[in-house]
Design goal:
Elements: H1 11-31, H2 42-46, H3 60-72, E1 82-83, H4 92-104, H5 115-132, E2 139-143, H6 146-166, H7 170-173, E3 182-187, H8 193-200, E4 208-211, H9 221-233, E5 237-244, H10 256-266, E6 269-274, E7 298-302, E8 314-318, H11 337-341, H12 360-395, E9 399-401, E10 409-414, H13 423-437, E11 441-447, E12 450-456, H14 464-488
Parallel strand pairs: 1-11, 3-4, 3-5, 5-6, 6-7
Antiparallel strand pairs: 2-8, 7-8, 9-10, 10-12, 11-12
The structure holds pyridoxal-5'-phosphate.
């Protein structure tokens, strides 16, 4: 008897659904770890699991026990000392929407699998395009995140360039040999997925030119101009510029207006990677920092970062939706040409994916639940926390601040008391030590070849004394680490 396993019309299934979901919510609430992480390493975690598919079937209690294993061994994204990545605690309204999304299990690839969802996603995209400042010809799609959005941007920019330069369709004929001369420019701190995309798009790592940044980690427009000129002098072909609005490590925002002018006068595609910084659109105070985004050809924006959506939730926006044409395919079973002529929207046409989640619902629900004012003040508060953290770090001789925070990230170094110890080694080990002890999940990165630590503030409910306590813990662990190093000498 399978009836009770599915939410069908059998009354006992509905009861079981309600029972399972309400119990699981209780389980989560009462079992969320009271620290950032349990501290277990990969082997210890693996020993909790058995890999064989059991023959017996789980009762409700056993299902809950199994889920509890995941709950108590996961990173607690709500903890004030979980502050490493662009990894957010999700909004309650979005969690409610998540249950609807996964229970209804609509699939965005065709209208007949997702009628309401299709219309809602289109509405959301139209609204977002309007927020960005795009005209009516724009379009977009929800994505799994910045990686997918950046990839799609570079794919469409590549296709467009090959088409206009050599009158050749990449979709039909693949890449012409001259394409090995194509180049994309981005800053030194642009996201690694620019290289990853270009490698996957058949243009190789050689096609990515990194432009110098200024002391605030923003692309330097003078260097950009020079780089463009130098490429043209070598008979190479710059076809796209990727500007970053909110770099992952420093939150730095490239000078979008100046870069947009350069891109326009040079006739190259401008993609703005606003995976992190795009959230500033929703804060009245911060929004002016994104001036210039409205002239981009394409934009990546993540909702699963500073907009507190459960993963996955990203969006890719395109100023001229006709450029989606280069990736158009028709599948008789999903989006036959005649159904489009009849005006039936099948969103598979604009997405890299086929089966795809109804993630638009959680954004739509959360935006309505919070409203722009509340959302804006949450963003402002999160950015303010980074300033507070920076002030606290500045006051201590044990730390050196690597930049003034522009968004929610703070990059800094632990400065050993004992200067015979290697600060790179100490900084590298410090975040691991904190993780293993389960007391803090903080970030680490490299600045000009030197190891550094990083906070990424994502939780607007953190208070200044949480930050003070965290910084105190880092100092304690730093001292401990120094002691054990001296011992080893
Ligand atoms: C996070 C991030 C990405 C990658 O996005 P995912 O959602 O992790 O795929 C790309 N660019 C920037 C600037 C980012 O911060």
């Amino acid at each position: 008897m399978f009836e009770s396993e599915f939410l069908t019309s059998a009354p006992e299934s509905k009861e079981r659904y309600i029972e399972l979901l309400s119990k699981v919510v209780e389980l989560i609430v009462s079992n969320l770890p009271d620290r950032p992480y349990c501290g277990k390493n990969q082997d210890e975690l693996a020993s909790l699991l058995t890999s064989d598919l059991p023959l017996g079937s789980d009762s409700t209690e056993q299902i809950l026990d199994r889920l509890q294993l995941a709950i108590s061994h996961s990173i607690n994204v709500n903890h004030p000392s979980t502050i490493a990545h662009l990894h957010c605690p999700p909004l309650l309204a979005s969690l409610a929407a998540e249950i609807v999304i996964s229970t209804l299990n609509q699939s965005m690839d065709s209208f007949d699998q997702a009628p309401f969802a299709t219309v809602l996603e289109q509405e959301l995209i139209t609204w977002l395009c309007c927020e960005v400042g795009f005209s009516e010809n724009s379009g977009g799609t929800l994505t799994a995140g910045g990686t997918q959005s950046n990839y799609q941007a570079l794919l469409l920019a590549r296709d467009r360039f090959v088409e206009s330069q050599w009158h050749c369709s990449v979709q039909k004929s693949g890449m012409p040999p001259q394409a090995s001369h194509m180049r994309v420019l981005c800053s030194e701190v642009a996201h690694f997925t620019i290289e990853k995309s270009m490698a996957q798009l058949g243009l190789g790592l050689q096609s990515v030119v990194r432009v110098k940044t200024d002391e605030l980690f923003r692309m330097n427009p003078v260097d950009l101009r020079q780089a463009l000129e130098s490429l043209r002098n070598q008979e190479l072909m710059p076809f796209a510029i990727v500007a970053t609005a909110g770099s992952t490590d420093f939150g730095s925002i490239d000078p979008l207006m100046e870069i947009a002018q350069i891109a326009q006068s040079d006739g190259v595609w401008l993609h703005i990677d606003a995976a992190y910084g795009g959230a500033l659109l929703f804060s009245t105070a911060q929004r002016p920092k994104l001036k210039g985004i409205e002239v981009a050809d394409s934009v990546s924006l993540d909702f699963h970062k500073l907009l507190w959506q459960p993963i996955p939730c990203g969006v890719f926006l395109l100023r001229n939706r006709n450029y989606f044409e280069s990736m158009r395919f028709h599948a008789e079973y999903l989006n036959p040409e005649n159904s489009e002529q009849k005006g039936i929207p099948n969103l598979v046409t604009n997405s890299l994916l086929t089966t795809r989640r109804f993630d638009a619902l959680k954004v739509w629900t959360a935006l309505h639940a919070l409203g722009q004012n509340k959302l804006g003040s949450m963003i402002d508060r999160t950015l303010y926390l980074a300033k507070q953290a920076a002030d606290l770090l500045r006051m201590s001789p044990r730390f050196q601040l690597e930049h003034e925070p522009e968004m929610g990230t703070v990059v800094f170094r632990y400065r050993p008391e004992d200067d015979s110890l290697d600060p790179n080694e100490l900084n590298r080990e410090l975040s691991q030590l904190l993780f293993r002890a389960g007391v803090a999940v903080i970030g680490h990165t490299e600045v000009h070849g030197r190891q550094a630590l990083k906070f990424t503030c994502m939780n607007p409910t953190i208070r200044a004394n949480d930050l003070e306590a965290l910084i105190g813990t880092i100092m304690d662990f730093g001292r401990q680490l120094e002691r054990s190093k001296r011992h080893q000498l």
